[in-house]
Amino acid sequence: MTEPRPVTPDTASPRFGRFFLPGPTEVRPEVLDAMRRPVIGHRGSELSAILREIDPVLRSVFRTTRPVYVATASATLLMEAAVRNGVRRRALGLVNGAFSGRFRDLVSDCGREVETYEVEWGQAHDPAEVKRRLCRGGFDAVTVVHSETSTGVLNPLAEIAEAVRAAETATGEEILLLVDGVTSVGGMRVEAEAWALDFLLTGSQKALALPPGLAFATASERMLRRAESIAGRGQYLDLLEYERYWQRHQTPTTPAVHLIFALAEQMKRIEAEGGIESRAERHWRMAEQCWAWTENVAAARGFSLLAPHGRRSPTVTALTVPDWTSPADVVTRLGERGYSVGPGYGKLKDSTIRIGHMGDHTPEGLAALLTELERITRG
Ligand SMILES: *Cc1c(COP(=O)(O)O)cnc(C)c1O
């Protein structure tokens, strides 16, 4: 494999830097080029060597010493795996947007009971309320989305994790914390081990800036013990299988080997940038740039940030669009200028647009997008 090229402003890839959907995100041409290789077998030493090499980088991204499993799937598969392996009978589902709603629904779709703790779309959950509900007893798991991509809200995950632990102590029940980190992992520091998250998952096509098709997760020891005690886990979603094959740097079934070639290239690039710390810093810079622009420039034309101060995601910003225009119009006009941003999602479709400032985007590239957006906000 070739040496990684350092991540530099968009002069490195002149074609890069115009696609700001909050997933899938834009992929560097160098990462796409890494897939131009012949097929290899998935039980041979070559693929195992690649998986062994990327393993420490993946674990540094997840901030854990536990294995990080590589699945050929979109992220939803691992949300379902979280439920099938981690919810025994009844979960508390934290809902504040479309993806957290999906996670909650998966619990009942998999035949388990779920109580919903819902807050308004655009708001974050209150850890004290999480604890209060869990202390009523009868829960064995919690589902939560860290960065709610439909609203741009960042949940206070460390505090929610503490609340869950406190409820465990108070009730004497084992309550697993199952976390969708699809737009947080790879874009900020998410402490799988320090925050004692039982399951943390992400997909390839968001903050990791890979093509769609892979998903990643890490599971605590007690999550695996829980899985062992649950019958009917099936095969494709069985975490014990992923754990077993991980020991020999393989995957349970035929993986998308070309996406793994791209992953290997991207892991080198993440290291070359200075690891997850530098990556996180770049994401916070872009987010702050986006918030400041909204407040200082676009607010005068009626645009506003949906998420409240202190609860905004570093990877995605949802802007409420004023009545004099519409999300569809803003998206179309930006498209005419060669830029893509996301329309609103779910019930926010007709009132918001979403800017995905994540993955391999740069502050310079984002500034160029905001300049175009400024022209449009002038009417
Ligand atoms: C995109 C997204 C998902 C779903 O991912 P798929 O890869 O389409 O299955 C789940 N949760 C969040 C927070 C997301 O942003």
Brief account:
This protein has 379 residues and is of the alpha/beta class. It contains 12 helices and 14 strands. A hairpin with a 4-residue loop joins strand 6 and strand 7.
Can you describe this structure?
- This protein has 379 residues and is an alpha/beta fold.
- It folds into two domains: 9-28 and 276-377, Aspartate Aminotransferase, domain 1 (Alpha-Beta Complex); 30-270, Aspartate Aminotransferase, domain 2.
- The chain is 40% helix and 16% strand.
- The chain has twelve helices and 14 strands.
- It has a seven-stranded mixed beta sheet with strand order 2-10-9-8-5-3-4, sandwiched between helices. Strands 1-13-14-12-11 form a five-stranded mixed beta sheet, with helices on one face.
- Helix 2 packs across helix 9, helix 5 (127-134) packs parallel to helix 6 (157-171) and helix 9 packs across helix 10.
- The longest helix has 22 residues, at 275-296.
- Pyridoxal-5'-phosphate binds next to helix 3.
Features:
379 residues, Aspartate Aminotransferase, domain 2, 40% helix, single chain, 14 strands, 12 helices, seven-stranded mixed beta sheet, five-stranded mixed beta sheet, 2 domains, binds pyridoxal-5'-phosphate, alpha/beta, Aspartate Aminotransferase, domain 1
